[in-house]
What we know:
By secondary structure, this protein is mainly α. It is about 80% helix and about 0% strand.
Amino acid sequence: REYCANYNNIAAMENRCKQNEAVWEKMLLIIKSSAPDINATSLTFFLVMPIQRIARYPLHLQTILKHTDPQHPAYSTLEETAQATVEINCRINEYKRFREVADKYRKTESLTMKDRMSRLNGHSIAKKTLRLQQLLKHETGIKVKVKDEEFDALEEHFNLMEKGIVDLHDNMKTY
Length: 175
């Protein structure tokens, strides 16, 4: 999890380094000298390898399991390991989706009004209009609002977490 989170940070750092040609040239020399037989042109080339390997483990273990006799003493351990790798991959994918959504909203918060206006198109205007129309219908009582208690609980939890993170961020600034 931590590796996936830092992978995005490293990719962003690498992009910043590319802006400074002298720094990028030095970095490229180090990357190429560390693995001369591989034609790597970026740091992320190496950093993505462990993530790609983790994704292949369930496939390899399933293949081994398929060719292992169910009576073999290691069969149950192999089965548990295969299941564990599937669960790990699911958690990694879930975390990556969470990060992508968080990054998307963080990016939109930092946009200027001009940038936000340039992102408007027919589809986004229609979508926002429909949302406003639904909100007005619910607020005026024309349409009954469907209650989703699980969603409401999750939304409340999210809002509490968001407030806690904002408070922590503010506290860190003052510290």
